[in-house]
Amino acid sequence: MTVLFVNACLRGEQSRTLTLCREYLECVDDVEEVNLAELKLEPYYGPSAAYRAQLEKDGQFDDPMFDLGRQFAEADEIVIGAPYWDLSFPAALKIYIEHAAVMGMTFHYTEEGRCEGLCRAKHLTYITTGGGEVSAMNYGYEYLCGIAGMFGIPETRFAAAENLDVVGADIEANMNAACATLAKLKATR
User: Fold this and answer.
1) Alpha-carbon gap, residue 7 to 38, rounded angstroms
2) Beta-carbon count within 10 A of 171 CB
3) Which helix (H) or strand (E) holds 88?
């Protein structure tokens, strides 16, 4: 079973989100990690967007620009780790999704115009941490639920450590609570 870990923990090893991700991925043998801080992907603009669209239309997926989409489509499980920033996640993750969303590879449209997913992952697990409360307005998770549906991934799962920057908060207890949630998710892999 191949687990694709999309690492959007841009603070590297200092990231509390990355700590939770490592906990969740512990004892998994086949993890392919995509480190967004290292990739430094650019959004598609004008000519690059047109070039990509033409290749998609022609079904020519051998260009390296489709490597991330292929990797996403072929993974058995998707794990996304990203800190809670500005009610969502870092922009680098949105740009990554833009690169992974390849018509004809991760999704396509039926003759009736209905979007149909082509990914084989059974679930997408989103792991995050926030300085304040995450669950009240977690637009990043809502977006990823939509993407999972578009890509044909039937289940989305979520774990967060919240209130990590609140004065007087028990940070260790909050991280332990998130680890307990992750342990339950691990048990249902």
Assistant:
1) 10
2) 14
3) none
Q: What is the pTM of this model?
A: 0.95
**pLDDT tens, N- to C-terminus, the chain (189 residues):** 899 999 999 998 899 999 999 999 999 999 999 999 999 999 999 999 999 999 999 999 999 999 999 999 999 999 999 999 999 999 999 999 999 999 999 999 999 999 999 999 999 999 999 999 998 889 999 999 999 999 999 999 999 999 999 999 999 999 999 999 999 999 988
Length of the chain counted residue by residue = 189
- Rounded to 10 degrees, the C-alpha dihedral 141/32/83/92 comes to -90
Rounded Cα–Cα distance for residues 21 and 14 (Å)? 13
Taking Cα atoms as reference points, which of 134, 157, 138, 26 lies closest to residue 80?
A: 157
Give residue 34's identity as a one-letter amino acid code: V
